[in-house]
Amino acid sequence: MLHYLGQELSSDISVLNIFRYITFRTGAALITSALLVFLFGPAIIQSLKIRQGKGQPIRADGPESHFLKAGTPTMGGLIILSGMLASSLLWANLTSVYVWVVLLVTLGFGAIGFYDDYLKVTAASHKGFSGKARLGLEALIAGAACYAIMVTGEEPFSSSLAFPFFKDLLLDLGFFFVVFGAFVIVGAGNAVNLTDGLDGLAIVPVMIAAASFGVIAYLSGNAIFAGYLQINFVPGTGEVAVLCGAVIGAGLGFLWFNAPPAAIFMGDTGSLALGGMIGAVAVATKHEIVLVIIGGLFVMEALSVIIQVFSYKMTGKRVFRMAPIHHHFEKKGWTESQVVIRFWIIAVMLALVGLSTLKIR
Q: Do the beta carbons of residue 309 and residue 315 sit within 8 Å?
């Protein structure tokens, strides 16, 4: 919206020319979304608390310390998504297809997560939305987004998989790109969802990943920087950096209320939406493999669940004391704050490794 204002009036009012720069609008989006969450967050939390009564159900087999959190409301993702959406619409260039594709995935996954949270809260149970139906809807949304990404760019590059560390290595997937991209987005959404189990555990790594992919989107969408770094130039993806900035700001605002002891939980509403968004940005910028590195913490959490389930079904034995793996360390005696901060450190280190792939070619 304000980008359009800058374009139309910058010739008459020179100071408005600043609205045309992605870097300025990314910073402005960050600040705007943070302020919106700070201002309206308390009212939303109070409203959710009144409507939910007993709040998010606590797992009976979980660490004993978690029972102290009974009554804490969930669906905090509504706070994040509201701030992120309002800020994005205000500061992003709304003529960019990539902006709408990423927003489609974010809001679509958020709606699925909201329904799942709603079922859990109303039934006071961990059994929410049918797993198969939920995955089917996620795949449908992600597939539509990937198809839009594929037809927006130039063939065969738009349907190709790029490999980090190699400047010219591309694998044309053809129409299978839609399936592959959808798998990446759905996997990212559910991996973040599994990570969201402790106060502040998911939101900080999400912000770290959003910051990393904000940088990647900006560089990939700039012909000069992409040429200098010898990464693939994807015209139009620079605008996605504004959305990443909005997520960081909304995440900072949410962390204010989610810091221990949490006044609200993110819930599937937020974790599915934010994970799906990061996955969509990775697909749009042709950095799907780098997502595995930057989002390595989320991958670790998801793998721990897969390994646990597979091991128990095949041998009747569990590899971890409890899955996802953050609960395993709690069962081993780590305090919640130790698990959270140490996982944050891992997320930072993985992000740095992921960003280093931009230069190592």
A: no
Residue by residue, pLDDT tens for the chain (361 residues) are 665 555 655 555 666 678 888 999 999 999 999 999 999 999 999 998 888 766 566 655 555 555 456 678 888 999 999 999 999 999 999 999 999 999 999 999 999 999 998 888 887 666 667 778 999 999 999 999 999 999 988 878 889 999 988 777 889 999 999 999 999 999 999 999 999 988 889 999 999 999 999 999 999 999 999 988 989 899 999 999 999 999 999 999 999 999 888 889 999 999 999 999 999 999 999 999 999 999 999 999 999 999 999 998 988 889 988 889 998 999 898 999 999 999 999 999 999 999 999 987 6
- For 246, the token pair is 């909005």
How far is the C-alpha of 41 from the C-alpha of 257, rounded, in Å? 8
* Domain annotation covers residue 327: yes
Element containing residue 88 per DSSP (H, E): helix 77-91
Sorted by sequence, the CB contacts under 8 Å of residue 275 that are 6+ apart come out as 109, 188, 189, 190, 191, 192, 193, 206, 298
Let me know if residue 233 belongs to a domain: yes
- In sequence order, what are the residues at sequence separation of 6 or more whose Cβ sits closer than 8 angstroms to the Cβ of residue 18? 6, 24
Element (DSSP H or E) covering residue 30: helix 22-52
Secondary element (H or E) of residue 119: helix 97-123
List beta partners, residue 161: 171
Ordered DSSP codes for 180-206? HHHHHHHHHHHHHHHH--STTTTHHHH
Judge whether 244 and 211 are in contact, CB under 8 Å: yes
Asked if 114 and 77 touch (Cβ cutoff 8 Å), the reply is yes
Identify whether 12 is part of a domain.
no
Count of structural domains, the chain: 1
Structural domain boundaries, residue 197? 23-356
pTM given for the model: 0.92
In a domain, 164, yes or no: yes
User: In sequence order, which residues have a C-beta less than 8 Å from that of residue 73 and are 6 or more positions away?
Assistant: 45, 48, 49, 52, 55, 56, 264, 265
**φ, ψ for residue 333 (rounded to 5)?**
115, -5
